[in-house]
Amino acid sequence: QVQLVESGGGLVQAGGSLRLSCAASGRTFRTSNMGWFRQAPGKEREFVAAISWTGTSSYYADSVKGRFTISRDNAKNTGYLQMNSLKPEDTAVYYCAATTNWYGSRWSLDPSMDYWGKGTLVTVSS
Predict the structure, then answer these.
(1) How many Cα atoms are found within 13 Å in the side-chain-facing hemisphere of 51?
(2) Is residue 88 classed as helix, strand or coil in its secondary structure?
(3) In whole angstroms, what is the distance from residue 80 CA to residue 19 CA?
(4) What are the residues facing 19 on neighbouring strands?
(5) Over the stretch 58-85, which tens digit does the pLDDT of each residue have?
């Protein structure tokens, strides 16, 4: 079992930065691949970024590539999403999730995840 708790959301102006954290409990997190997803009001959930359990592979949605960076610290059982150059369209509830699968280029195709956090709200004002 893996429990995931997101934090770090808040209100930020366009062009600003935020760093989200995903604190995990459970031994299997260290061998689980981790993803960040988001859901904007009235829209379906979408993939944002993923990182392998070793931290050596990552994958990003085109909409955030070059602006967001995913990372993890397995010693702390924590994953991160550094978000720079934020835009109003980045406003959403952000969720972290974990899975034993690595989806490669299929991360953007609604991958099946084993565990989910409850989300943290990010609001970007214009």
Answers:
(1) 21
(2) helix
(3) 7
(4) 82
(5) 999 999 999 999 999 999 999 999 999 9
- Specify whether the CB–CB gap between 22 and 34 falls below 8 A: yes
CB-count exposure of residue 104 (10 Å: 0-12, 13-18, 19+): exposed
**Token pair 């989910």: residue:** 116
pLDDT at 18 over 80: yes
Only one residue has tokens 């550094």, namely 82
Nearest to 81 by CA among 34, 19, 10, 30: 19
In this structure, what token pair is assigned to residue 12?
């930020």
CA dihedral 91→118→103→85, nearest 10 degrees, is 30
pLDDT tens digits for range 90-107: 999 999 999 999 999 899
Residue type, 107: W
At 39-65, the pLDDT tens digits run: 999 999 999 999 999 999 999 999 999
